[in-house]
Write a structure and sequence with these properties.
The chain is an all-alpha fold. The protein has 7 helices and no strands. The chain has one domain: Four Helix Bundle (Hemerythrin (Met), subunit A).
């Protein structure tokens, strides 16, 4: 099977949606699921404002802020990696994706410390509705982030290929979009859980 060189393919200037339609259906479906959870959280908060405010005050906002920085940096790395691929700078793209991967791993490490702090304080899902939703929402996001790390690993291998087929390039772009979705969800989740009162 003959593949087209990735440079002309990536360098096309015609406006189009990056990635494949299937990836966008998955992303939009995921966003809808999170939107339902976010709405449910806000409804519960409005019903139990004092409980949610008191429980929220026990969270370490520094953990959330540090993880926000890690994900913003990782998104920047992924954007630059896509640009590097379009310029056929394969080695640079590999390094940038690896940098995004390390940011994702750092996010997990911080999250482990964050969860450990909550558990040590006996603030677990069975404590009250706030902690239940806190663990469900952040855990669901963490699951998506781990999936994203798998996607980034696949992108590193694609970046090593001298030529990408149209399908492979669409997968590369779609993978980058998935990672941005993970970051976007956190940018909603962080203020919702840690800051909004």
């Amino acid at each position: 099977m003959v593949t087209e060189p990735s440079q002309p393919l990536a360098a096309k200037t015609s406006k189009r949606i990056p990635g494949e339609a299937g990836v966008w259906i998955f992303i939009l479906g995921d966003i809808c699921v999170f939107a339902v959870f976010f709405t449910y959280y806000l409804v519960q908060r409005s019903k139990h404002t004092d409980l949610f405010d008191l429980s929220q005050s026990t969270l370490n906002k520094n953990f959330g802020a540090v993880n926000t920085v890690f994900l913003l940096i990782s998104s920047l790395f992924v954007v630059l990696a896509v640009r590097a691929m379009r310029s056929t700078e394969r080695l640079l793209a590999q390094r940038l994706i690896s940098g995004a991967f390390l940011c994702g791993v750092a996010f997990i490490v911080v999250k482990v410390f964050e969860y450990s702090e909550r558990i040590a304080a006996h603030q677990i899902p069975t404590t009250n509705n706030f902690y239940l939703l806190y663990f469900v929402l952040t855990g669901l996001h963490l699951f998506h982030l781990i999936l994203g790390l798998g996607v980034l690993t696949a992108l590193v291998f694609l970046a090593r290929k001298p030529d990408l087929s149209q399908h492979q390039w669409a997968f590369f772009e779609g993978g980058a979009c998935f990672w941005h979705m993970v970051d976007l969800l956190w940018l909603v989740l962080f203020p919702l859980i840690f800051l909004v009162r």
